[in-house]
Amino acid sequence: MRGPPPPYILEDRTGSNTATDFDDLYDRIFFRIARVPDRTTTMIYSMNIRGSRHRDSLPFNQQPIAILDFAQDERLGNISYVQHPHNLTMPMHRYLRKTSLFGASLLRKFTASDGLEYKWGHRVIEGQEWSLHTLLSLTQAVSRPECTTMDNYLIAHFDLNPPNVRSYDPSVSGNYLTIYQHSFHLTLELVASLTIMRHIAQHNL
Predict the structure, then answer these.
(1) 45, 167 Cβ separation under 8 angstroms
(2) How far apart are CA 158 and CA 109, in angstroms?
(3) Measured between alpha carbons, how far is 38 from 151 in angstroms, rounded to an integer?
(4) Which residues does 116 contact at the CB level (< 8 Å), separation at least 6?
(5) pLDDT above 80 (res 125)
(6) Is the dihedral of CA 44, 26, 85, 58 positive or negative?
(7) CB within 8 A of 56, min separation 6: which ones?
(8) What one-character DSSP code corresponds to residue 196?
């Protein structure tokens, strides 16, 4: 009998938040993240094949599926989902909100396209650089037995390659974003929101 599909394990090619690829180890989904030259705008593209020297040698003429337009001083700007029916654009500070008025900047929540609220946290779980949880209703929690508590359902996590461990491939960073099957439909939103969270941490916003 076939079991559930394995999670998306997106390999972070370079470790850079403005110039990398996120490629699933099972070749199911591929993203490119690239900063516009001489600007503070970061684009997210959906790609057809894994990041490689071969792919990089091909002409690149794709349109982004998400745009992260930061301010000139790298402060938070606007996020746009280009393929949204209404080309959704909103300020990042409204999209990724602190969990409380005086809460930590690296603990933020957002409402995804499925209507659920998700929360990113920095180093809230040992071994995970970033962890994403959601609050489930009782009905949802019962249907997902792997959920231990209704407010602690792990959706995804981003893990850094330990500094004392060599990557199996020297051309990649060894960092991974893991997304579990119930949230495959949110992959773009998770990649985009994680990119903003990493930007917040990098620039101490």
Answers:
(1) no
(2) 16
(3) 42
(4) 134, 135, 136
(5) yes
(6) positive
(7) none
(8) H
Four-residue CA torsion sign, 128, 131, 137, 139: negative
d(CA 31, CA 16): 14
CA atoms of 53 and 13, how far apart (whole Å): 12
Q: Which of 72-81, 110-119, 162-171 has the highest mean pLDDT?
A: 72-81
- In three-state secondary structure terms, 130 is strand
Q: Distance between CA 161 and CA 15 in Å, rounded?
A: 10
- Over the stretch 167-204, which tens digit does the pLDDT of each residue have? 666 667 889 999 999 899 999 999 999 999 999 999 99
Average pLDDT rounded to a whole number, residues 62-79: 95
Which residues touch 5 (CB under 8 Å, ≥6 apart)? 181
Look at residue 134 in the predicted model and tell me its pLDDT: 87
- Please name the residue that has the structure tokens 């620039």: 203
List, as one string, the DSSP characters of 37-89: TTSSEEEEEEESS--SHHHHTS---PPPSEEEE--TTS---EEEETTSTT-EE
Cβ(112)–Cβ(95) below 8 Å: no
- How many angstroms separate the CA atoms of 83 and 164, rounded? 41
pLDDT of residue 98: 94
Which two three-digit tokens encode residue 163?
């500094």
Which residue is listed with tokens 């071969």?
A: 54
